[in-house]
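Re: Re: ligand-bound prediction request (bumping)

Still looking for help on this. To restate: I need the protein modeled with zinc ion bound, output as structure tokens. Inputs repeated here so nobody has to scroll up.
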Amino acid sequence: MRKILIIAIVIVSCSCREIYQRPKVAGDRIKIVATTSILGDALKNIVGDKAEIFILMGAGTDPHMYKPAYADVRKLIECDAIFYHGLHLEGKMEDMLVKLQRIKKVVRLSDALSESDLFYMDDKKRLPDPHIWHDVNLWQLCMLYAAKAMAEIDEKNTSYYTLQSEKYLLELRQTDNLIRDIIKDIPPKKRIVVTAHNAFGYLGRAYGLEMKSLKGISTVSEFGLYNLSHMIDYIIENEIMAIFPENSVPEKLMFALAEGCEKNGWKVCIAPALYSDALGDAGGKAGTYIDMVLFNIEIIAEYLKKTAHDHTCGSTRS
Ligand SMILES: [Zn+2]
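Reply:
Sorry for the wait, this slipped through. Here it is.
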């Protein structure tokens, strides 16, 4: 793997544009690479039939841990433009993406946002939370930025990209309103969401949910027994009925948490997995960005509204 990265970096460093840029054929569609499935789906709404999008990380792939394969490096080098999130989401390939700017248009979507839009996990503001898409309003700013970038990449279709983005932004605004309506039905005291890694900070801030997680903002970080026992105490003290696994993080963490609660006389329900950093399979319940955010909020609402009367979770002590 190291070898592939070195080859790519050498290629990029030599600035041999004419060698590595794809020969253009009349009528050829623009070729775009998007790093994640979430970004790829959103971009498809903007580029419509004017560009071809190749997604590096498919459904259920964890971007924090992803290392590009040889075929990915080829795609990155041969495409016309690259879109990625930034803020260290693509932790293992960010250096390569930055270097590729020397030979082609590379769009970092998080540049659409200002410092005040972001969450930082440290006082020195070195560790921004990259999971911006869980706030649909912030994602709208990113999509507007993506549409402007497409107009620069393919100037002759500027009005097409503007029209497409206007349609998509309207859908995103409707989605945002729907999420707010769903949250209104959750009793305020029950709006605590326990997850495996801290991917939903923006969701919590935007829609008034308190987020708690075992791991940090990257799945790379470890958690200790200390975190686990503290979380068990927190769940029992706050009478939390459900915890939420994620599609791109192994479920064993959530099972360990549920088991720990049960040993202490509290049965916590394990909800269906939320989609945090990757879409579900195409055509499925979370196969698009909009379906993903709506699926997540519906599951969160259903499980946070559970009460002891449901007899599925709550105290096991008589
Ligand atoms: Zn993440």
